[in-house]
């Protein structure tokens, strides 16, 4: 093994607290690593990918000593600040048709997604998670326009060809669910799960048994590989280890992995103030993704203080993996317009929380997976649907490390490598134009 050092050029800055975290009691983080430790495996990053890898390792090899370190508190990263859909069907947001292409490819995507959902379903069952945290409710896709309805019809015929059950809904039927007349049509798929993402990742982090240990607020500053193993340096500690799972999503590139291959894109969400349940008809809890990729997601959640609506829309390219207040403000203005378009009678509702979160996409929509250096294995680049894809990448990486064979691992190993992006100035201009064009094409959706 040649001696190499990979220094983190930048650390994650997740920004303003998400509505999901704000609705929970403040978290008491696990202690920061403040000494030198030696373990069998260190997992860097405690999002969907890192947590899934830790759970799978503990399941397959309960005697392995594992340390999980995260630069921030669990739940503050993208895995705790997303819209909370675990989608069991192909859902490639960067493709024109959600990536329902070849039958084999689609079946592989479905296997990936359902393995991830099964992973969480088992945890839900074992730990008695309630439906506020994890709900196998299925999800809707909703269309605001005739073009959106056409998208749903095309999606429905693809689902038919895959033998996937679903229900196409007319305007009145979708109004019965959402309480608004704004949607022209809908499509229900029963296999999706909706979660309270911050509550779910916290719940997983809090159940690790010895010998898995979690150290929050412990950024990996550098990784050194040598013939005697690897060393991960943190501000106050050191981890000596044989193997590393890098589950840092786009921050893989901060260490130099996936350089020139990862597109760093942020998306944005707003959550309304609570309103009395009787103020809006329909069901008190539902989730809907847009008919067209790059459109707007909506969820209604119910809590003890009333119901709330979540809206997620807008994608922006941020090569430095940081987002400022101006971008959140601009996305917030868009959310207000989209919200008023969907719920004109409730346009007075104020948005209580607004936030953004990072995603890493690749040009060919594949993850950055497998061995990236001596002793270092990546489960990164969620491609916008990390609820399932990053989870499955974490599971597959754990299996790879202990030599466990599975169909999931086979699929991950068969992925091609992420394609190189054009040189920076071209990517910068191209990615911004492309996202703007796609947002324009999604129109009212
Ligand atoms: C608003 C929004 C809505 C979304 N909605 C959905 C949805 O409904 N369904 C879906 O499937 N996906 C959704 N996504 C995408 C999804 O959240 C991500 O794909 C997913 O969270 C990625 O998981 P991950 O574990 O790969 O990465 P992350 O959750 O980003 O975890 C990586 C972790 O690594 C840590 N880290 C990074 N660098 C270091 C370092 N040097 N040292 C230590 N720790 C480090 C970070 O702090 C972070 O906690 C959404 C994203 C956003 C922002």
Q: Would you kindly provide a written description of the structure presented here, covering whatever features stand out?
A:
The radius of gyration is 21 Å and the shape is globular. Helix 2 (48-60) packs parallel to helix 8 (389-402) and helix 3 (103-127) crosses helix 8. Strands 1, 2, 3, 10, 11, 12, 13, 19 and 20 form a nine-stranded mixed beta sheet that branches. Strands 7-8-6-15-16-17-14-18 form an eight-stranded mixed beta sheet. It has a three-stranded antiparallel beta sheet with strand order 4-9-5. The chain has ten helices and 20 strands. With 445 residues, it is an alpha+beta fold. A hairpin with a 4-residue loop joins strand 12 (229-233) and strand 13. It has one domain (4-442): FAD/NAD(P)-binding domain (3-Layer(bba) Sandwich). The model has no long low-confidence stretch (mean pLDDT 94). The relative contact order is 0.20. The site of flavin-adenine dinucleotide has 40 residues, from helix 2, strand 14 and strand 18.
- The CATH superfamily title: FAD/NAD(P)-binding domain
Low-confidence stretches: none
Label the CATH architecture.
3-Layer(bba) Sandwich
Look up the CATH topology: FAD/NAD(P)-binding domain
Q: What global shape is seen? A: globular
Q: What count of helical segments does DSSP give? A: 10
Total strands: the figure is 20
Largest sheet: 9 strands, mixed
Mean pLDDT: 94
């Amino acid at each position: 093994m040649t001696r190499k050092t990979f220094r983190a050029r930048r650390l994650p800055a997740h920004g303003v607290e998400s509505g999901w975290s704000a609705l929970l009691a403040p978290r008491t983080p696990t202690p920061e690593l403040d000494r030198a430790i030696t373990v069998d495996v260190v997992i860097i990053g405690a999002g969907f990918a890192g947590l899934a890898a830790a759970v799978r390792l503990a399941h397959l090899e309960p005697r392995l000593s594992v340390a999980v370190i995260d630069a921030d508190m669990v739940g503050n990263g993208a895995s705790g600040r997303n819209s909370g859909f675990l989608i069991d069907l192909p859902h490639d947001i960067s493709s024109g048709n959600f990536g329902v292409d070849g039958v084999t490819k689609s079946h592989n995507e479905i296997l990936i997604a359902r393995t991830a959902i099964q992973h969480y379903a088992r945890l839900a069952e074992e730990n008695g998670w309630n439906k506020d945290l994890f709900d196998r409710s299925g999800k809707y896709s909703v269309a605001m326009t005739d073009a959106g309805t056409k998208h749903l019809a095309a999606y429905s015929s693809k689902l038919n060809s895959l033998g996937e059950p679903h229900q196409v809904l007319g305007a009145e039927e979708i109004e019965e669910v959402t309480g608004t007349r704004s949607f022209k049509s809908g499509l229900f798929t029963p296999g999706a799960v909706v979660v309270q993402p911050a509550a779910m990742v916290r719940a997983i982090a809090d159940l690790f048994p010895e010998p898995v240990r979690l150290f929050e607020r412990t950024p990996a500053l550098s990784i050194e590989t040598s013939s005697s193993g690897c060393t991960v340096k943190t501000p106050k500690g050191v981890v000596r280890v044989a193997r590393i799972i890098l589950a840092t999503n786009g921050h893989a590139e901060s260490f130099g992995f996936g350089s020139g291959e990862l597109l760093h894109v942020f998306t944005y969400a707003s959550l309304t103030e609570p309103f009395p349940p009787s103020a809006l008809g329909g069901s008190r809890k539902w989730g809907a993704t847009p008919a067209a990729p790059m459109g707007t997601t909506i969820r209604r959640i119910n809590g003890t203080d009333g119901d709330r609506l979540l809206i997620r829309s807008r994608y922006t390219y941020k090569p430095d993996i940081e987002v400022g207040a101006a971008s959140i403000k601009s996305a917030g203005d868009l959310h207000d317009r989209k919200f008023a378009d969907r719920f004109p009678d409730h346009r007075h509702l104020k948005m209580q929380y607004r936030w953004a979160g990072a995603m890493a996409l690749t040009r060919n929509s594949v993850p950055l997976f497998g061995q990236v250096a001596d002793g270092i294995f990546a489960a990164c680049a969620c491609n916008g649907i990390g609820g399932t894809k990053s989870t499955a990448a974490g599971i597959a990486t754990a299996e790879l490390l202990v030599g466990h064979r599975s169909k999931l691992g086979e699929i991950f190993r068969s992925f091609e490598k992420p394609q190189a992006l054009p040189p920076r100035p071209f990517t910068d201009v191209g990615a911004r134009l492309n996202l703007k064009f796609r947002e324009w094409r999604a129109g009212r959706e």
